[in-house]
Amino acid sequence: MSRDLLISPLGKRLIKPHATAGFGRRFLWGLPRAGGLQLVWRALMVLALAACSSSGHGPDTLPQRWGDLDVRVETRPSPPSPGMNEFLVIITDARGQPGWDCLVALRTAETDPWKQAIQDGRVGVFRRAALVARGERAVIQVQISHGDQQTVLHFPINLAPGG
Q: From residue 9, how far is each of 17, 27, 105 by CA, in Å?
């Protein structure tokens, strides 16, 4: 044991590096290093994949195309439940560039007035809350004005079960 010890200039006892090198290379928490690291790595990957997995439901709405614009609607919460929900209308052109130069309004019933959505900067995302219910209010109507053209797209909503 004495040959594995060194004395520092300050008189402290030090262990020679070779005396513990094998232990540090071979073990992690009492397991062989390769197996221990692999075990930890695999556990972290399983946890990461589980955290990122979907909840099993499909999209809230299906995307639609108008002219050269792709229009998607997302909801918060997802899937939407009856009551007030936030809608995000995401518009991109054929090249994938944001459709920021559009004017967007929403409603969920023919008798409702159009409510203009608020644009999130110039990124092609428009937000608005609207009342959702089974039946007539299970379709979000999106009015889009682009230049001198205007259209209304209807997006049926997949409501959360039991709501």
A: 17, 31, 78
What was the pLDDT predicted at 60? Answer: 75
Nearest CA to 128 out of 138, 117, 119, 120 is that of 117
Could you give all domains of the chain from N- to C-terminal order, each with its CATH number? 2-52 (no CATH), 64-156 (2.60.40)
Give the pLDDT band of residue 156 (cuts 50, 70, 90): very high
pLDDT tens digits, one per residue of 60-71: 788 999 999 999
Distances (CA, A) of 108 to 115, 125, 141: 10, 19, 6
Which pTM was predicted? 0.64
In the chain, what's the furthest Cα-to-Cα distance? 92
